[in-house]
Amino acid sequence: MLEIKNLTKTFYKGTVNERTALDNISLSLKDGDFVTVIGGNGAGKSTLLNAIAGVWQPCSGSIKLGGKELVGLPEHKRAKYLGRVFQDPMMGTAPDMMIEENLAIAARRGKCRNLKWMIGKIEREDYRELLKILELGLEDRLSSKVGLLSGGQRQALTLLMAAMKTPKLLMLDEHTAALDPKTAAKVLELSDMIIQENSLTALMVTHNMKEAIKHGNRLIMMDSGKIVLDIEGDEKKALTVEELIARFTAKSGESFAGDRALLG
Predict the structure, then answer these.
(1) DSSP readout, 22-60?
(2) pLDDT value at position 264?
(3) pLDDT confidence of residue 79
(4) Is the pTM of this model over 0.85?
(5) What is the pLDDT of residues 2-39, one digit of tens each?
């Protein structure tokens, strides 16, 4: 489903601030893979997602999604193939619009737009049924402004919207980092359910090692713009946080530092 070859990105090239964020990365995801991505600050996790999304173009390399080359394709043209949930619950929705209007925008993603804007009775009922799976009571608040929702409610809604058109790839960029532990656990539970029920291919960036081990069928660890560990299947299921730290240290030659990764 996703094939990345020799991807490189250097920021501020030729200046004293030059920094290589992605260092000749290659990565392949099979259809239905749910891959968790972990690493310290500056490891290249979010940079990798931004490269796939088209936030900027890489210096070199290839990104193919379902066989289609994405490099050179502008960000807005990639949107119909991708779903993304950001760390900030304020992103991914229009706060001054109603819940049903936000869902309508997600439902029309990738379609031709015209001046007609109407949500019909059948469509509204579809949204109500869709929201029930969140178990947050939002199905009875279709006319509420999204800006009035809590961070957890808004992130759950964003997750639903991102998966609504069955994207070729769902990207979760530390989407629970700004939530309290109880709400974060609920959003992660919803993420697992939506990915499984829709057979989605997904990349989930997290700082939390426990989350990285618990969720998904495959785990990759990044450091200094490179993939230093790639673990899947039964090997991943048997992992502990201590073993993951030890393997990272052996591969990278340095200790893994980061309270957010070790605690949680």
Answers:
(1) EEEEEEEE-TT-EEEEE--TTSSHHHHHHHHHTSS--SE
(2) 42
(3) 85
(4) yes
(5) 999 999 999 988 898 889 999 999 999 999 999 999 98
CA–CA distance, 160 with 9 (Å, rounded to integer): 31
Give the chain's domains with CATH numbers.
Answer: 2-81+167-262 (3.40.50.300), 96-163 (no CATH)
Q: Are 148 and 157 in contact (CB under 8 A)?
A: no
Give the C-alpha separation, 261 to 221, whole Å: 12
CA distance 210 to 80: 32
Could you give the angle at the alpha carbon of 195 between the alpha carbons of 63 and 2, nearest 5°? 15
Residues of the chain with pLDDT under 50: 115, 259-264
* Cα 89 from Cα 252, distance rounded (Å): 33
* pLDDT attached to residue 259: 42
Tokens coding 248:
């990272």
End-to-end Cα, the chain, rounded Å: 32
Beta bridge partners of 27: 4
Alpha-carbon gap, residue 22 to 15, rounded angstroms: 17
Q: The tokens of 123 are what?
A: 């469509």
Query: How far, CA to CA in Å, does 233 sit from each of 150, 216, 227, 236, 238?
Result: 36, 9, 18, 5, 9
pLDDT for the residue 135: 87
Q: What is the rounded CA–CA span in Å between residue 173 and residue 159?
A: 11
Identity of residue 246: A
